Amino acid sequence: MEFGFLSIIPPVCTIALAIITKNVFLALMIGVVLGYTILDGGNIGAALNDSLNGVINVFTSTGNTIVLMSILLIGAIIYIIERSGGITGFVDVMVKKRAIIKSKKGANFFTWLLGVLIFTSGSLSCMVVGSVTRPINDALKVPHEKAAFLVHSTSTPVCVLIPLSGWLASMIGYLTSGGVAESDAMTVLVESIPLNFYCLIAVIGCLVLSLLGMDFGPMKKAEKRALETGYLDDPKSNPDASKGDEDIEIDTYRPRMMNLLLPMLGMITGVITALIITGGGNLLNGNGMQALLWGVFVALVICGILTITQKIYTFKEFIDNVFKGASSMLSIAAILMFAFTLSPIIKELGTGVYLSSLFEQFLTPGLLPVLVFIMACILSFATGTSMGTMAIMSVIAIPMAVNLGMSIPLIASAVWGGSIFGDHASPVSDTTIMSCATTGCNIIDHVKTQVPYCGIFAAVTIVLYLVAGFIL
Q1: Could you give the 3-state DSSP secondary structure of residue 154?
Q2: Does residue 84 contact residue 253 with C-beta atoms inside 8 Å?
Q3: Domain boundaries in the chain?
Q4: If we measure between CA atoms, which residue out of 304, 312, 307, 293 comes closest to residue 73?
Q5: Of 18, 174, 353, 466, which has the highest C-beta tally within 10 A?
Q6: Measured between alpha carbons, how far is 38 from 55 in angstroms, rounded to an integer?
Q7: DSSP string, 81-108
Q8: Cβ atoms within 10 A of the Cβ of 467, count?
Q9: d(CA 101, CA 312)
Q10: pLDDT-derived band of residue 240, with 50, 70 and 90 as boundaries?
Q11: In which element (H, E) is residue 369 found?
């Protein structure tokens, strides 16, 4: 049965509600009910029942279940590493080398490098990099706006370019929710990374502009103010002390860098080994779902061995902290769960086919990457969430790419980059707030100075997608 115009109501309402309410979970949940209401011919009772069954059916898929489990376990791993001295140990080693940093450019490079090295979590990166580099940046008169720009630009963008953490599970999950076969998801993800123009430009661009001193707009004024007056913040601004001046507690035990390095190395080794084994010797042909679970399990076991043998936790305390850490990822897991529920609904409604038929009349397929990128930018900027935008856009854009015969890695990269744009530029983004909290920057000052750069990065990205859309 063809639903025509009705097929776009669930995704359109989901996007609209996400923008209006800034609650992606609620938007996806309502989108699921609306979708089943249309499929059930307006029978709301049947739609509610089917919605419940749809959520339950998510767990009948091994791939979906692995993704959700992995995200929760990643939360547990990060939580235990933080509280066993892993982060503090890593920080101490890096800070001991600060004596070689004698200039603003040196401080800028150190901030950038540390941000690139911590790629497991955007929020964790903001928290660690901002708090570690602030004394150095303040001593060398780096304005807080510049520090926040560097911290923010190397947080989530780096996580997406090096998705060897919970991002791997999430991004594979978004691809499969969009219709990519589980066996092909890892290959598509790997191929999409070098096409993620926005994140590449943001990470490289912030360093190049800083080292070359190519500041402009409000950022140039901030640099001039710091140089001439010594003020690291605009005196006219009134930073929120509850967010900008608090000391953020990262760990509660003495520094142990190996408590960070060993689990991370274990995870990477586990993922790579599993990819090679499940791929019959070919890493790119490996099963990303199984590999992720192997890597996470290895890392968690290493965390357990380290914390128990170091007498940080008893076995019972370790298990308790696993559950505490996992609970920090419940909201992301819930968003993914409803994205997985919405995916088959949109497929059954034929939304992708209907939209692609409309665009076939008015749009050259080569323009699809640009359209997807811009749509994702708007949605992510309005909601301040990258993962929520990925969840919504994946189930819309990837089926359209298939129907229009476009490169799936290219369209996936447009979804990734556009989603990160909002996380990078939106004043309501959690990483925006955390970057300001750890660097001491006023949120509005950070947005004012960073958005012009984000706009230029996005403009260059649009040009590149225009070219790539007609070549790939």
Answers
A1: coil
A2: yes
A3: 1-472
A4: 293
A5: 174
A6: 17
A7: HHHTTHHHHHHHHHHTTGGG--SHHHHH
A8: 11
A9: 35
A10: very low
A11: helix 368-383
